[in-house]
Amino acid sequence: MLSHSNPLGYRNLLTWQQANDIFELTEKFVVSFPSKHPKTGQYLTDLKDQMIRSARSVVRNIEEGYLRTSTKEYISFLGFSAGSLEELIGDFKYCQKGEIGDPKGCAKGIQMGVGEAKMLQKQIKSLEEKGYREKTVSGNDMARKELKNRAKIEKDFDEYLKDILDKSDNKNK
């Protein structure tokens, strides 16, 4: 069971602080968009709106989870934040590849997003271990989470290798 003497204590969390920085960066970044996609000519309003919603969701889920009554609920909301963040990073990468918006802002968004993702994962892992010690998270839940993490690491590594091979193939052409 979580107990918070300060209901605004989430503001002291580095994950919340950086999520706010990412939210602000995203708001500034989408202002740099042209009205239409430079390659397809499609309007970019939906992409702008989605990036803002994703960035906002990262922040708000940390806040909401912090005040939940159990460690397990808190972990779930941090997971929602991590999911929204992954979506936002994907959108920044899409913008980078499509040369949409300010390139420096885009690179910074990706960099900050990846750092935030690592911090959120560490926070989640720490809370899971706390829940396991307090017997509010089962050993089976921990094992399932570890298997899921390993599968994600393998997938990320496969994508990394594919990217390297693709770049190597393009160089040799």
Automatic annotation (TrEMBL):
Annotated protein name in UniProt: S23 ribosomal protein
Coiled coil ranges: none
GO cellular component: ribosome
Family matches, as InterPro entries: 23S_rRNA-intervening_sequence, 23S_rRNA_IVS_sf
Entry keyword set: Ribonucleoprotein, Ribosomal protein
PANTHER family linked to this entry: FOUR HELIX BUNDLE PROTEIN
Taxonomic placement: Bacteria, Candidatus Berkelbacteria
Protein's organism: Berkelbacteria bacterium GW2011_GWE1_39_12
